[in-house]
Amino acid sequence: MARVDVVMPQMGESIAEGTMSRWLKKLGDSVKRDEPLFEISTDKVDAEIPSPTAGVLAEILVTDGQTVAVQTVVARIETEAGAAATVAAAPATTPGAPSPAPGDGAPRPTVGAPPERQATAPVSPARQPAAAVAAAASPGSFEERIRTRSSPLVRKIAAEHGIQLAGMQGSGIAGRVTKKDILEYIDSGAAAQPAPGTRAGTSAPMASMYAPAGFGYEPPNVQPWPGDVVEPMSRIRRLTAGHMVYSKQTSAHVTSVFEVDLTRIARLRAKVRPEFEAQYGEKLTFLPFITQATVQALRKFPVINAAVSGTDIVFRRQYNIGIAVALDWGLIVPVVKRADTLNLVGLTKSINDLANRARAKKLKPDEVQDATFTITNPGVFGSLIGTPVIPQPTVAILCLGAIEKRPKVKTGPDGEDTIAIRTCAYFALSFDHRVVDGSDADQFMAFLKGQLEQIPEDGF
Predict the structure, then answer these.
(1) 29, 187, 370, 433: which one is catalytic?
(2) Same fold, 2-107 and 252-453
(3) Which helix (H) or strand (E) holds 186?
(4) Quick one: pLDDT band at residue 42, thresholds 50, 70, 90?
(5) Does 253 participate in catalysis according to the annotation?
């Protein structure tokens, strides 16, 4: 018999640690190779991690809710003789991820990787001698760079609340401040004290959600009443909340709404759907048609497919379309990369695959990054019109309302007006008025409307 180490995988090049969400197997359970073993959360994605080998779960070294460095041994599986002493969870790792040194179980830094991406053996700050903690804080040291170069989301939250990361001792690698650390720090009220060089009132938790800094506004102190149920926000809910608040503070949101007649697409879809689904094994919805027309509109109006970088506008040459997916535990936006290279069949397969794997927690970190434009579809729940928040750093998001039959006035060839039943929906475009003018947004929507209303009914 031999024991195989199971390690915390590196779920993306910039990911240095992961949080153990929950174990899917109990101590002593039999596991098969590639069978889901545990769930983890990172700053990018939640995912199920498969077992690297078949055997019996003999040791659990990291408990639910604990955050550890990548390549940390989280469990050991007892296998038949001949198994390797240390096996990484290869299906979940990315090429180039650090590998443990043979025999010692400690991670070895990747050759040539920048300091902030090199993994080191996790050391709990509480167990470090005082001298070691002092040394870790020395200016320019590796430990200081790791701590102050936390994930972009952590740095963003710190900036919003006037928190100096260099002055914090986190629970991550070498004292690196994690998302959990900074949220707990804010929740504790410690962030309410203004950091050196900031004005009083600017660092009060979430105060900037309600009023501009400096007005002395204090958020309400909410106390549970008898019978209330208090439930902590999930990790994905906190990430979403932080991003939404940041976006509203950053972009000048404006929304333009158009009604789109989808009757031609509805007829075409009804005609080809049985053959399409039989041939490709994929459900044909309205969304691939809309995505295809959206890419055509983005090509014509490149400012809608842009990003803001300080005082620069970055016009993207790739067309990566984020498709918002509602989950039981939150919202996630997987991305159809290079959507301009896919036909209707390819878009259908890609959209369905990403949505299914999002619900099964099978997405990879790079599949929820680098969107240049986003489509959200609350219409499936009956919503007529929405004004969505723009995902940063992009400049626009399209919201699809419910697709339903409506009576519309149509003018016949002889000029006579009649009432006709048409399949319609309201499309709303939220755009960043810092860089997108109303005329550009409306021309984009008018072009998109024309593409969808004039699609040939006799083919793709």
Answers:
(1) 433
(2) no
(3) helix 179-187
(4) confident
(5) no
**Distance between start and end Cα atoms, the chain:** 59
Q: How far is CA 246 from CA 59, 202, 243, 326, 399, in A?
A: 41, 15, 5, 21, 20
pLDDT of residue 220: 81
C-alpha closest to that of 442 among 333, 297, 325:
297
Q: Which fold has domain 252-453?
A: Chloramphenicol Acetyltransferase (3.30.559)
Residues in CB range of 197: below 8 A, 6 or more apart: none
Topology adopted by domain 2-107: OB fold (Dihydrolipoamide Acetyltransferase, E2P) (2.40.50)
pTM for the predicted model, two decimal places: 0.63
Tokens coding 381: 């729940």
Q: What is the mean pLDDT of residues 284-288?
A: 96
Catalytic option among 437, 440, 442, 458: 437
C-alpha to C-alpha distance for 17 and 67, rounded to whole angstroms: 7
Where are the chain's structural domains? Answer: 2-107, 125-216+230-238, 252-453
- Which range has the worst mean pLDDT, 36-50, 132-146, 359-373? 132-146
CA distance 449 to 290: 10
What pLDDT is attached to residue 192? 53
Whole-number Å distance between alpha carbons of 57 and 28: 5
Is the pLDDT score of 41 beyond 60?
A: yes
User: Is 366 a residue of the active site?
Assistant: no
CB atoms inside a 10 Å sphere around CB 345: 15
Report helix angle 152-160 to 235-250, nearest 10. Answer: 60
Band of the pLDDT at 84, cuts 50, 70, 90? very low
| 329 neighbors 335 (Cβ within 8 angstroms) | no
Cα 252-247-241 angle, rounded to 5 deg: 145
Q: Are 125 and 173 in contact (CB under 8 A)?
A: no
